[in-house]
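Q: Start with the shorter request: fold the first protein.
A: Done. Sequence, then structure:
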Amino acid sequence: MADLDLIATDPDLAPLWQAIHDRLSTGKTPDDIATITVPALSPSAVAALRSWLDTPTQRRRGRTLVPHTAHGLKVPLHPLLTALDLQPEQLQPLVEHAIGRKVVNRKNDRLESAQLRQELWEYAATRLPHLPLLLARLKATGIENDAAPQIRRLIDALCTLTRELPHQRPRTLAKLAHDHAGDPHYFDLATLPGQRLVSAVAELAERPEPTRPDHIRALLAESGIIVDRLSATVLLHQVRPTGDGPIDRRLREATAPVALTLLDLTLSPPRLAPTPLTVVENPSVLEEALARASTLPLACTSGQLRAVDHALFQLAVDQGVPLRYAGDLDTAGLQIAATVHQLYGAELVAMDATIVHATRSTPSAVPIGALPPAHSSTELGRALHAGGRIVYQEHDVVLDRLLATQDASVATSTARVPEHDADR
């Protein structure tokens, strides 16, 4: 067995000693504790524990005394003591040496909340000295006492993950989350840990923290972290490429809509012809375009603004392709349309009061509900409130406007930019 002093000061094992310290601080003795659950351990720490505790037979059979659970890594205490040649009474001095703080029995006389938080931030400062801005943000957020284990898990996972950046060989975010937090979804970008990871990477890169999905993924990619390059797609139909790359050839040879991933648009982006590109919210519009044998260049975002959608819009802007956008006339559709217009200068088509009036004789069955405040007082907003129903892209009037065979420039001349945008 290696020197105990080296084991106690190994930063990869710090979360284990902290977890034992926490259990002893509740008044438990080593004899009372069967197992310790550690929220997050680095792959090297897990490998070390299994080399100490698992027998060759267990390894051959794929079994382990140190399994992953939903709450973290489960470590049996008494086999660990045996492997380290420690008596139970020697455990407390070891963890106090490892953590640098005495074990205080809080079973009957718990520390005040301020002292508990201070202990956590002192621990965070030892684990995240390279991320002072993130540490300050964590402190400013504040925590409840019962949230301390989750914060410590985040601190440990960020510590071990960010120490390895940048990766020479790109790794997926899910793989890194699995290896450093025991859960492939732990750092999903919609979660608080995912947002904290983005903050950490931006701080290490000395860059402003991005907010747009495609910018976030580009920042992470620079550090060798790959996010959602294959899971989301944007549909393109009758889009005319002018390049000779693999994606250009796919588009040129296609007889049906082509699904492109974020990887396609960033690794081998097509060169688009400088003709107007109409981007729609719903795939059903592309189905209708197929049925009508329309030659209008179309793309579809499936009603969202994900990284892959932002990548397509930015690609069009960078290549000088005029953009037209059309969505459902409901709250979400209006918000997305306003964002696309503001960020990328897209003309909004089939999203005006004229369309609302033309569909009023055959309305949808869905009430319009509350509109975004910026739209309520516009001509379009007043028409929607008067009609009282959402106008969907599947309506024949909308489809006729979108898929009109006349020149795109004529079609766009009927489009109206909402008043609140035109005044910007």
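Q: Next, the second protein, separately.
A: Sequence, then structure:
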Amino acid sequence: MISAGRIGVLALLWGSTFLWIDLALGGLTPVQVTLVRCALGALVLGVACRFARQRLPRERALWGHILVAAFFCNALPFALFGIGQQSVDSGLAGVLNATTPLWSLLIGLVTRAERRPHAIRVTGLLVGLAGTALIFAPWQRSGHVGWGALAILAAAASYAFAFTYMGRHLVGKGAPTLSLAAAQLLAATGLTTLALPFGGLTGVRLQPVPLVAVAVLGVFATGVTFYLTYRIIADEGATNAATVGYLLPVVSVALGALVLGEDLSPRVIAGMAVVLLGVALSRRRKAEGGPAVAARGPLRRTTVTSEGEGAPG
């Protein structure tokens, strides 16, 4: 089990992602934020590889898997979070990101990778979806249904797919953790560069806050945490890392309120509690089955964790 200190550090790093994105959007477009974030993260991990004397993967087949993971775990969700947070508060973004494990279970059920799911886990999925509906409140004019919130949910679903894919094709396959993480962010940088014509060529407002925010986002909330993500997945599996995922929305909501003055309604807070209850239930397994053996990945064979637990937001 990961120590309380490690849980706290990871929760703070990952949970603050949404705060830094919000601040960075004050001077950069979503595509620009994504590009700088990936590039700085890749730079940090590239330097770490240099000091550790590790080389980037060379196998062509492995790079194919890295490209897929880079798109669904980095380039796409990072851009979707930027797009979503143009109209959604950072705290709510963190709450919606917490639905990633629910998407993971749903993917497992649809693809039949999750065979004979325990009734408690299915109940957790339904409870989590109910909590998400409570947050969106489509029956109220003050509800959060909109393209921004839907983009963030899509990002969470993208993480879920990516974590499952990474668990099957990347983690535990013999490649060093550090070089894998560096290669994936490098690939994500290249993929995002291709998207520059779609909102990335506008002028950048050279203001201190957005620039510092995107630097912190790239170096700490992406580079450092992405490496730690791989390490936790490889060393302890997604189940033991789940505690971090439960803290992420709490951290994001707290930072949004304290730093940005965001005001969440009681309904959204209640929805967050219901979502986290659903996530907890969705991770339950039969007592006789013992702890889940992560198919070596941001997850296990069927369930995964979130930006939260499997990757930064």
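Q: Describe the second briefly.
A: The radius of gyration is 18 Å. The chain has twelve helices and no strands.
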